[in-house]
């Protein structure tokens, strides 16, 4: 996937590769149902121009075993796809009512609801774990996923625009760190199970599941997380008290690189490219795919960025818009609108 704008050279989305995991354990799953250390998914917009105009359900796929973007074997609304295979484990845990697993599903736009909770983080995702390991998915799709009792599905509202998702498999000890990140992001959890065996290790998740009052979060927090197979990921999260553009004020300066950023551009107060600090952030105008098709960034609801210089090879996937109103929301992402970004560095 290449990206560009009027000011910027092309950049490439690159991620590490790593061995597969034992299939019996909770983990991210590829389209064959095999366990993988991580995967990234880019759902294409409905009106992609080029040789392969899609229906808004096709996606590009990459994982720890497949280092190049490939067209998904299935559509994103099918249970055989990577999201369906992965989320299916959570739905199975829900149906079993097991005390050996914990899960949480969150979104600032909840299925079966016609309103947005602006007091929660602007963040979307779900996680499932047992005392051995689990996975965490961060994505950009409103109203997704369905409540477990409704079974797998993909919302019609998520078809028109481009969307992203990243899944990472973690050993159990990493979820105590993820729990700390949840404090700042303040996600709106709408389905959750946290048996007593997990509550001491995940106190913030426990409070979020119970809709209890949270302790005061830090302004922002950076966490280095290790996947089950030893890949390093950085997770940036800010609270509503950090009133600034997270990409410009923090992420780019911390990574010491210029960034090309893609985010939702239908906001009335979208932010322009910013060159005010040492490291700059440029908005992307046009996106090209390996399918010889292109689409304008205004057709994309995903939130991601890549380093401008190919030698840096930073990739950021999250749920943060570059918009004025996002400054007052938490991210992992809410007023807390939440903003969170998962960052990975490719091979050097």
From TrEMBL:
- Family under the similarity heading: Belongs to the DNase II family.
The highest taxon in the source lineage is Eukaryota
| Enzyme superclass (EC) | hydrolase
Q: Which organism is it from?
A: Anas platyrhynchos platyrhynchos
The cellular component terms of Gene Ontology attached to this UniProt record, alphabetical and capped at eight, are: cytoplasm; extracellular region
Keyword terms:
Hydrolase, Signal
Q: Which gene encodes it?
A: DNASE2B
* Coiled-coil intervals: none
Instruction: Name it.
Output: deoxyribonuclease II
**What's the Enzyme Commission number for this chain?**
3.1.22.1
Q: Name one Pfam family in it.
A: DNase_II
Q: Which reaction does it catalyse?
A: Endonucleolytic cleavage to nucleoside 3'-phosphates and 3'-phosphooligonucleotide end-products
């Amino acid at each position: 996937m290449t990206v560009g704008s009027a000011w910027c050279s092309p950049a490439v989305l690159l991620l590490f590769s790593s061995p597969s995991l034992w299939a019996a354990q909770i983990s991210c799953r590829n389209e064959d149902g095999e366990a993988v250390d991580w995967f990234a998914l880019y759902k294409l917009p409905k009106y992609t121009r080029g040789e392969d105009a899609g229906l808004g359900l096709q996606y590009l796929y990459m994982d720890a075993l497949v280092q190049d973007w490939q067209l998904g074997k299935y559509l994103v609304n099918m249970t055989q796809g990577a999201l369906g295979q992965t989320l299916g484990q959570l739905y199975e845990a829900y149906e079993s009512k097991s005390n050996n697993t914990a899960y949480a599903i969150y979104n600032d736009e909840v299925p079966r609801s016609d309103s947005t909770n602006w007091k929660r983080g602007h963040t979307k995702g779900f996680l499932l774990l047992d005392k051995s390991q689990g996975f965490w998915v961060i994505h950009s799709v409103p109203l997704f996923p369905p409540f477990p009792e409704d079974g797998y599905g993909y919302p019609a509202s998520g078809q028109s625009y481009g969307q992203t998702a990243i899944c990472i498999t973690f050993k159990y000890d990493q979820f105590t760190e993820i729990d700390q990140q949840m404090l700042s992001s303040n996600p709106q959890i709408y389905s959750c199970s946290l048996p007593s065996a997990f509550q001491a290790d995940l106190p913030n998740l426990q409070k979020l599941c119970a809709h209890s009052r949270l302790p005061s979060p830090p302004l922002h927090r950076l966490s280095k997380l290790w996947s089950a197979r030893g890949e390093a990921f950085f997770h940036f999260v800010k609270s509503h008290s950090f009133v600034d553009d997270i990409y410009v004020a923090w992420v780019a300066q911390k990574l010491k690189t210029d960034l090309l950023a893609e985010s939702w551009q239908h906001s009335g107060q979208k932010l322009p490219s910013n060159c005010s600090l040492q490291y700059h952030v440029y908005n992307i105008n046009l996106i090209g795919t390996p399918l010889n098709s292109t689409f304008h960034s205004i057709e994309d609801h995903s939130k991601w960025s890549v380093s401008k210089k190919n030698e840096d090879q930073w990739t950021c996937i999250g749920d943060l818009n570059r918009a004025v109103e996002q400054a007052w929301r938490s991210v992992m992402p809410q007023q807390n609108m939440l903003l969170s970004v998962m960052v990975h560095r490719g091979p050097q």
